[in-house]
Amino acid sequence: MNKRYYLPLCFFGMLLSVSICFAYYYDYEPNMLSKNLRLAGIGNLDLVIIERINEINAYDYGESPAGAVSDNKSQSEICIPFLYGFTVFGDTAYNQEWHAGAGAISGIFKPGEKIAFGGSFSKTKAAEESEYYMATSKSERDVMRYSLMASWNVLSRLSIGFRGAYHKLTEEDSSFYGTSLDVAKVTCYEPSLLISSGSGNWQGGFDYKYKEYSREYGDTVIHEFAVPIIHSSSNLDMGIRATLGTIPDSGLLKSVNVRSIYKLPFGNEHVNFGFQLGYVSPPPLIWDDFYYGYIPGHQTNMGFGMAYLNEGFGLLGIQYKKEILTFTEVSTPYSIHKNCLGIGTEIRLLKIVPVRFGYTNISYDYGYSGTSYYDVITWGLGIQFPDIGLKVDFCHNLHIYKHGYYNDETDYDHTFGLAGYFDF
User: Would you state the pLDDT for residue 94?
Assistant: First the structure.
C-alpha cells in the first residue's frame, strides 16, 4: 500500500507458523487486503466469515502458541503462498516504477493428539525506480522471515507452547548523491500456557513475548504479557485478549480486544453476525515491521457485520470497521477517524469451484486537514478437493488511489496471489 495515503498504525502481527504474515506496506512487500486469499477475494469480510487465519480460538485470535495442538480441527497442514504486486502511477511529474514478489512455505505437523510442531520461511524482494527531471533514484528491499513453533498438551486440560521468530530487512538506496545500505533485524521469543475447562467450552492462558528491534544506531526491546480468554459453543464463539507491555521511555502498553461471532442456523443455510471492540493506549507505530515506536494518545477499534451463507449457493456479506486514533500530548488534542466498509460474495458455480467478488472503501477523516479515501476492488476463485484435503486459491486486489490538487490523478496498485493448502 502506498505510503503517501495512510498512516500505518497497527499492532505488529507475529509471524505464525501455519500462515505467512506479509507486512503489507508499500515499497517492501505486495499488499493484499488479507493474507488469506479467500478473505482477500471477498472484500476481507473477516468479522463474519471464518477462515484458517481468523478463527476465534486460542491460537489464531488469542495468539497463543500453546493452542496450536487443537487449531485447524487438530489436523496437520502445509501452506505455500505467492504474491506479486506492481503500481501504475498517475503522477505526471515523476516517472516511477515499483514491483515486488513474495513467496513462502509453512507447515505444522501433529504426529499425535498431544504434540504439534512446525515452522515457516518467507522471502520478499521489492524494487522501486523513480526519475524526476533527469535525476534517477533506485531502491531495493530484501526481506526474510523464519519461525519455529512447538506445542505440547502436557495434561488433559493444560498445554504449553513456544514460538520463536527472526526477521531481517536489507535496504539499498542509490541516487545522484551515492549509495546507502541499511540492515534491520527483529528477534522474538514467546512462551505460553493454556488451561481448558472441564466442558471444553472455555480456555484461558498466559503469554510472554520478548521482542528486540535491532538497527545500526541502536536496539529497542519490548516485553508483553497477554491473557487470552476464549469461549466456544455450537452457535457462539467469543474471544478476549488483554495485554500489558513495557515500553522503553514511554511507560506501559495497555490494550484489550473483544471479538465474537454468532451463527443463526436455518437448515442448510445460516446467518453470521460478527462484532469487535478494542482499546489500546498508547497505540504503537510500526513501519514496515522493522521500525518501532509509540504515539502519545489512545486508539479505539470497533466493527460489526453480517453474512448469509448457503451450502449450495455460496455467501453474501457486509461489514463495517472504524478506528479512532486520538493524539493527546499536543496543544489541541485531535483525532483521526478511519472508516472501512466492505461487501463481498462467493458463488459456487460448481461444487468445488467457488468464484469470489468484493469491494472495500477505506476513508480517513483528519479533522482540520480534511479527508482522503481509496477503493479496493477484489476478485478470485478457488479449486477444492475435500477428499484429499487440498485447496488452491487465486486472488487479485486492485487499489485505486485518487490524489492531486483537484483529485485528478489516479494510482493503481495491483496485487496477485496464488496459494495452496494441504490438510492431512
Answer: 57
